[in-house]
Amino acid sequence: MLSSGFSGFHCDALYELLAGSPAFDLAQTRMVFKWRRDMFHYTAITDETQSIMPMSEDLLPDRAKQLIVPGSVLLVNPINTDLKGEIDDKYQYCLLTSHANFTDLEITQTA
Question: Which residues are the signal sequence here (predicted)?
Answer without folding.
Answer: none
